[in-house]
Amino acid sequence: MTGREERQRGRRRNRGDGTTKPVLEQMPWRQPTYQDPPIEPLDAEGVEKIHLTAMRILEEIGIDFLNEEAKDVLKKAGVDVDPDSDRVRMDRDFVMERVRRAPEQFTITPRNPERSIVWGGRHTTFGNVSSPPNVTDLDHGRRTGTREDFRALLKLSHAFNCIHFVGGYPVEPIDIHPSVRHLDAILDKLVLTDKVIHAYCLGTERVEDAMEMVRIAAGLTHEEFDARPRMFTNINSSSPLKHDWPMLDGAMRMARRGQPVLVTPFTLSGAMAPVTLAGAIAQQTAEALAAIALLQEINPGVPVGYGAFTSNVDMKTGAPAFGTPEFMRATQMSGQMARFYGLPFRSTGANAANFPDGQAVWESMNSLFGATTAHANVIYHAAGWLEGGLLASMEKFVMDCEVLQQIAYYHQPVPVDDDSLAFAAIAEVGPNGHFFGAAHTMERYRTAYYAPFLSDWSNFETWMEHGGRTVHERANTLWKKIVAAYEPPPMDEAIREELEAFVARRKEEGGAPTDF
Question: Does the keyword Thylakoid apply (predicted)?
Fold first, then answer.
């Protein structure tokens, strides 16, 4: 038996009839598009008032830019840069002229062009959980993330067709030293997946190394890499009213090479932003547009996105809350602002639960409801997020993918034609029959409805006969089967050798500087 045949045997189980069945039966890879109009809590006057308040914030209060290069760029463009502080005040005409340079829609092409995705318009995409320091599963409990856990989550991210891009690290591989962690992590992302990937703006070396590795993995020249989007980054403002050095440095480096930047203020209403939603969205908008204007000044027309992470806090404890009614409304309002500026919109699937229980499900569903009804084009943390972003869960990843697949199925066109109207079938059955055995039903029953891979629709007696297993237990079994049966996407051996040689060289050079 060849190595490939052994992998195929591990990936499939025998059906007993001479054929095999996939470990995971799922919908094919595709990018969903919204079929319904967005929900818009604000009327035109409300949108205009938030816009005007954001402009006043930029003009009268200003934003701190903790990056000398960014301030130099803005000063040369005629922006009011305070010589005695980091404060920058932007005229609304300057801001809006730069914002209008940004494309409303663009395509990102990874090393496998078949995994290209479109951001903007009615298109949406889902990404995996990103950046938690801890990981959990039912077998080993909550623990610090390792490279093994990191790789397992990457394999899940690759296996599920409803995951369209790989965000930040699905869990921090804490067992790799920070100076070289990005090299091993990005190597794993590029080898174990062939989807669009994210790079962190956490210092010059990390961003430059990431861009070079993506270029190598796709077999591109520098000119080909710079010519179109191949990867992306996301930066967060340090709310209130501040953009820090590493985020700006990385964003500017990406922008110069034509790579997309999502600007997502982390504005918790009641803590880092006003307690009112309108005030929080106005501040969020000012912070986002300030960085977007900078990037458009650096490279006019570079793809960017307007991001939203406005939620509220528990006013009793100060703890962040997600998936709340305020979170949903803030997301929908943010979607309106993104469309007002003609920018692709990034949102988040989030919850504050500590276990993949009912609270985790309803808060995640609320977050996804807010994101999808707002027509978010980019939905971060859509699978696997727990504990307010401090924990990645293997079981929650699988549970979330069931939900994401159902959302994608929901956003399919509903045919209305002679065949689907079924007049002949209705006439055949008449008032005294049923449709179970009708020819119209028999021709379509296998594909008529959504088929879940995780939900159990059996009655109580059948469920008990099969062990009475909860959804967490079923998810636990499934994620382990998927990881065990995983097969990496193809990569040219010469390209892999070049990637590994680059990583080895950069490690010898010390990687990225750290404090220890």
Answer: no
